[in-house]
Amino acid sequence: MEFLTVLKERGLKATPQRVAVLRELGKKTHPTMEEIYIGIREENPTISLATVYKNVNLLKEKGMVIEINIPNGKMRYDYLARPHIHLVCKSCNCIEDLDYDENLLNFQNILEKSKGVVIDRLDVIASVESCSSCK
Amino acid sequence: MEFLTVLKERGLKATPQRVAVLRELGKKTHPTMEEIYIGIREENPTISLATVYKNVNLLKEKGMVIEINIPNGKMRYDYLARPHIHLVCKSCNCIEDLDYDENLLNFQNILEKSKGVVIDRLDVIASVESCSSCK
DNA sequence: CTATTTGCAAACCCTTTGCAAAAAT
DNA sequence: ATTTTTGCAAAGGGTTTGCAAATAG
């Protein structure tokens, strides 16, 4: 299993609960804490919500997971394979992952030069009222 | 006063508390709910925190105020004169407003065309570890 | 005069914490 | 054997709500 290696690399113990959290986050669903909890409970009915919180936060600190802070919505979480941005639809609540494009990289470079800073993190959330999959 | 007109246009009553909320948000400080409350109390010591919440949320619904959802930080609010993006510094907690540039507009256009959507809102938050004003 | 808004306190999330038992290395 | 992690229940923090009194238009 890929996750076992990834955890070992960061010096984290591979408990069944932790692996389950990673597995849930690995699905392309961008779940909330609650949804991760509910998802895991189907296979591991004894996991506690507190454990989910602790693990997601730990994985976030280790840079393996990011928060997606959707306008007027609950916090969602995503397994971070590589940096990407999010397209969220207010009608069907779907979230699509998109790669950075050239324009966004240009934007970032110009900003870094003009302000004399190093951008550590660029959160981009594009919100639409309805998308192609919800009509 | 500008705010009185703006409120009237949206059919909202111009209570002293509401005007004070707008005045606080008009400062370039990107305050939290608590900070708005504390700021107003200096002049209007009887305002309640609940009233601040109610007003900020109402102004948000009416499109006069936006939330700024900073990674790992409290929610901040901003009087929305015209759309802009935010450069936040983790060291000094400052937030600088920046205008959209050509690259960002290109990015938005391309995304709209390729996905067949209309972007209703584009939240861009660039985070830096330290900025020019905090060394 | 009527509809909205305020302020208070209680209720309501969501999230974190302390700690003893369990599990991983 | 040592350190980390779990699960529980309680505490914490921010936000919302219900309602009577006050205020704006």
Jot down its keywords.
135 residues; alpha+beta; Dna Ligase, domain 1; 3-stranded mixed beta sheet; two-stranded antiparallel ribbon; DNA-binding
Can you offer a commentary on this structure?
- Two copies of one chain form a homodimer.
- Chain A has five helices and five strands, in the order ααααββββαβ.
- Chain A is α+β, with helices and mostly antiparallel strands.
- Chain A folds into two domains: 1-81, Arc Repressor Mutant, subunit A (Orthogonal Bundle); 82-135, Dna Ligase, domain 1 (2-Layer Sandwich), CATH 3.30.1490.
- A three-stranded mixed β-sheet of chain A has the order 4-3-5, covered by helices on one side.
- The radius of gyration of chain A is 17 Å and the shape is globular.
- The A-B interface holds A 67, 69, 71-72, 87, 89-90, 96, 98, 101, 103-104, 106-108, 110-111, 115-132 and B 67, 69, 71-72, 87, 89-90, 96, 98, 101, 103-104, 106-108, 110-111, 115-132.
- Chain A binds a DNA duplex (25 and 25 nucleotides) through α4.
